[in-house]
């Protein structure tokens, strides 16, 4: 799993469904449209020999040209077990173009990528989960981040909403095309366990609290959680706070908080974090199967929801991508071992806003093979190849906001539902707030502040600490 925080557009407007068509490479790449024998046998990460596709299978890759003898390096926060479907999704591109894609995943991505860029040794491409980090990389390292080439911009215009495009842009220039996306406002549970206990899926926040109290009264622990994630420890709590901010104060106040039009420690933020604490800091409610409240900080986010399977906890708030962490044989279905419901509204009469995120492909080189691979990653052909690769490996939890993605290629009903949510123009979205904030806050003090908070620091102390770290120039 990645050290995951994924963000998107601060505007958070409803997503529109762009028209479909064939992905565009564009003349800007300056590449030949003739393949030399459908390329070589390179595999992502330098793996072994693969069966070669025939010329018909390679026809769709002719637009990328003959890239024989070249290589493209990728640096990302996506690690095992989620890395393999990515690696597999590149193989036909490699075999048909002749290039080699070298994949490196790291749990220290957020800390190490700026170091590499400042040292003048960045990767060719990076999958950046935070628009705030894109902004920081662009503004603090002039010329290091390359604007998206024409072919990528054309694909983004055709297959993604303006919400996603603006999230990957800085001052109106597109730098990052969306890669994977996610729907964050979910609570994972076991339908089978709920049925056996006579529990109903809550439809309001008050019902969810009442259910939690019932589980406690019957001798159980309703919630489990984990926020450990290497250098990114703490990020799952930022999602909790963002979701509650949206439900308690609405999207307009949320936007003001994210942009620092109101201070980070505004009374409304204090109230929202205290509401989160009414669940996660209640020793009766947590940490089912894992320990006491403090164990939330030492439990990895990958392990945080697994006690649902043995009924030592019953609910775990996490995005659709959490599906990838359940054992391969786990049945994910409305009547299965695990499923998810939407984090309920606090005010049932208020419109619901969905918290979403995304990674973005950012380039530090404009060599032809790099631009060609960028274009492929922004295409519906890659989105469907990635979905199929995950399904072939029995993995769940990956979706894309690319309108050319066929939801039938996704491996479980939560993934398919999430993809449909992203493409439903009637929905209202906000991108992950910490991802949009300056990197010094969103992927630094916000994570640390939330970790200190869950281990005993007060709400006021934690929010004051984050507020004082906000860059004076932003």
Please provide a written account of the structure.
The structure is a single chain. This protein has helices at residues 55-58, 83-89, 91-97, 109-118, 131-140, 150-159, 162-167, 191-197, 205-217, 235-258, 267-280, 295-298, 368-377, 380-392, 413-422, 433-436, 439-454, 459-468; strands at 71-76, 100-105, 125-128, 169-170, 173-174, 176-183, 186-189, 316-317, 339-342, 354-363, 429-431. The two termini are 31 Å apart. β4 (169-170) and β5 form a beta hairpin. With 474 residues, it is α/β, with parallel strands linked by helices. The strands form three sheets. Strands 1, 2, 3, 6, 10 and 11 form a six-stranded mixed sheet that branches. It has two domains: 27-183 and 356-422, Periplasmic binding protein-like II (D-Maltodextrin-Binding Protein, domain 2, 3-Layer(aba) Sandwich), CATH 3.40.190; 186-353 and 431-468, 3-Layer(aba) Sandwich (D-Maltodextrin-Binding Protein, domain 2), CATH 3.40.190.10. Belongs to the bacterial solute-binding protein 1 family. Keywords: Transport. InterPro entries: Bact_solute-bd_prot1 (IPR050490), SBP (IPR006059).
């Amino acid at each position: 799993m990645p050290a995951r925080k994924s963000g998107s557009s601060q505007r958070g407007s409803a997503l529109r469904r762009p028209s479909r068509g064939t992905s565009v490479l564009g003349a800007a790449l300056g590449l030949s449209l003739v393949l030399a024998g459908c390329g070589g046998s390179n595999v992502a990460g330098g793996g072994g020999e693969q069966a070669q596709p025939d010329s018909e299978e390679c026809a769709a890759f002719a637009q990328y040209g003959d890239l024989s003898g070249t290589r493209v390096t990728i640096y990302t926060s996506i690690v095992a077990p989620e890395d393999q479907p990515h690696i597999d999704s590149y193989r036909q591109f490699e075999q048909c173009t002749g290039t080699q894609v070298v994949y490196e995943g790291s749990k220290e991505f957020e800390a190490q990528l700026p170091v590499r860029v400042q040292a003048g040794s960045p990767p060719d491409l990076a999958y950046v989960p935070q628009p705030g980090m894109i902004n920081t990389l662009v503004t603090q390292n002039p010329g290091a981040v390359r604007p998206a080439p024409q072919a990528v911009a054309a694909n983004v215009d055709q297959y993604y909403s303006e919400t996603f495009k603006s999230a990957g842009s800085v001052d109106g220039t597109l730098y990052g095309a969306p890669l994977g996306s996610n729907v964050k406002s979910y609570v994972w549970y076991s339908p089978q366990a709920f049925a056996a206990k006579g529990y109903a899926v809550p439809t309001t926040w008050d019902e969810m609290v009442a259910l939690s109290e019932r589980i406690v009264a019957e001798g159980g622990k309703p919630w489990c959680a984990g926020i450990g994630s290497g250098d990114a420890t703490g990020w799952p709590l930022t999602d909790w706070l963002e979701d509650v901010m949206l439900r308690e104060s609405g999207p307009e106040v949320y936007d003001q908080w994210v942009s620092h039009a109101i201070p980070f420690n505004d009374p409304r933020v204090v109230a929202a974090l205290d509401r989160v604490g009414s669940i996660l800091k209640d020793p009766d409610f947590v940490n089912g199967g894992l320990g006491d409240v403090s164990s939330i900080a030492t439990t990895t986010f990958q392990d945080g929801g697994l006690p649902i399977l043995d009924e030592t906890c019953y609910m775990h708030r996490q995005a659709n991508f959490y599906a990838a962490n359940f054992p391969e044989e786990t049945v994910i279905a409305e009547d299965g071992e695990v499923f998810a419901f939407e984090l309920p509204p606090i005010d049932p009469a208020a419109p619901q806003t969905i918290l979403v995120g995304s990674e973005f492909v950012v380039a530090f080189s404009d060599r032809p093979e790099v631009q060609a691979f960028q274009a492929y990653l922004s295409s519906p052909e890659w989105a469907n190849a990635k979905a199929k690769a995950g399904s072939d490996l029995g993995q769940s939890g990956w979706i894309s906001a690319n309108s050319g993605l066929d939801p039938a290629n996704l491996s479980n009903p939560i993934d398919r539902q999430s993809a449909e949510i992203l493409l439903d123009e009637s929905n209202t979205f906000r991108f992950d707030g910490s991802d949009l904030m300056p990197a010094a806050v969103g992927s630094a003090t916000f994570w640390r502040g939330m970790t200190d908070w869950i281990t005993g620091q007060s709400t006021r102390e934690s929010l004051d600490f984050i507020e004082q770290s906000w860059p004076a120039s932003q």
